[in-house]
Predict the 3D structure of the following.
Amino acid sequence: MSITSPPRQFYRNNENSSRLFENYASVNSPGRSGVSTPRSFYCVETHPIVAEAWAALQQSIVHFRGQPVGTIAALDHSSEELNYDQVFVRDFVPSALAFLMNGEPEIVRNFLLKTVRLQSWEKKVDNFTLGAGVMPASFKVLHDPVRNNETIIADFGECAIGRVAPVDSGFWWIILLRAYTKSTGDTSLSELPEVQRGIRLIMTLCLSEGFDTFPTLLCADGCSMIDRRMGVYGYPIEIQALFFMALRCALLLLKQDDEGKDCADRIVKRLHALSFHMRSYFWLDVKQLNDIYRYKTEEYSHTAVNKFNVMPDSLDDWVFDFMPKRGGYFIGNVSPARMDFRWFCLGNCVAILSSLATPEQASAIMDLIESRWDELVGEMPLKICYPAMETHEWRIVTGCDPKNTSWSYHNGGSWPVLIWLLTAACIKCGRPQLARRAIELVEARLSKDHWAEYYDGKLGRYVGKQARKNQTWSIAGYLVAKMMLEDPSHLGMISLEEDKQMKPHIKRSASWMC
């Protein structure tokens, strides 16, 4: 199918759609379904903005020497371009999924090949050379009309705010490679020597031994979607969840030759340690919150309960009000003497899709979203994190960042792109009605607001003060959510089922006690 042709009609009849949802509800949801959660869901109707969204997505396509290689971040001519005219690895993921779901894999294949070839470039920040496995944050196609030539320049963090390398780019690249392979059945791309080498380089970079006593990845602030100073340095949930999913995808993609087997063995060991660590120490529900509240400090032994020496007095009052009786979530960060109890949407949704969350934990996350709908979804989905930092905390943690003021941008702002992750997580947990409820909120405003990048305010009522219009991943995120809701079989390209061998022997949470 041509990349410039109109989208194929992807809406089916009600009977087929309902049957597909019944299948996913019975297979993927744990023994307990949500309160008043139906087991089936009827077909979504074609909304008038769908065609508009596809047209806008087509306009965002970037070509290199006649081949489509990605989509630019935004088509907003009313503001200075800065780097919004570049192809970002993380931003392209929802666009890629939309193209795959619509039967247009060519642009995705070209993107994957182009970025892995950029990986081999020399990467320097001042006089320091970055690791060989680092993937670019973005790239830009430059046109020389005089010489009638095109070249590509890439940014590995040397131009980024704060000069931080994108830790998440390599993970998203592997996840997208697996999605492409799963969707098309084409294994020839992943089996190319340069692609196999790219996977191994990323894995080598992440699995290298050092001084860490935890299986999680130590990161700087601003190394992922939250690309500014927001107090997410250390072991942020977004990176750990993406790391876990990338490890699992790499295990499926690596060839069984000597180099591949050696890498796979290291991945398996890390996955076991990482799943236990995350499920045990990052998970928070009513029982765990009460345990932390009663922690003793300064314990020194292998039998210590408060293993990270967290001070109970550091618990904010909002956590007790936010936590429902039934439900839970993976908190933002766990490191020595520090727990960041903020909710981060992307990390928790990826935890569900990768099966880092057990079925019980995944359903508990859905319960939390449902019971705290106004706080996490509001009038425009979805809060990137909750709650926002205000006053003195905002000044200290963000350094008085004027873009990350309270309830704006990454500090409690609402990001429509996250709708595709929520929809995928809802379908996997057998809660498609929650996804439809959120999509209806998006459809009521997003097109009228010219596909805004993000929204401000506690309820996400206002278009963000510096939000770009015609933001490509807002457009693509909506299309992906819409197509997954119509045809849940698309979920397979971005979801992994639970690996029973990694199931920890831990007691069921008190939040599941009847």
Observations:
- The radius of gyration is 22 Å.
- The longest strand covers residues 138-144.
- The chain is about 40% helix and 10% strand.
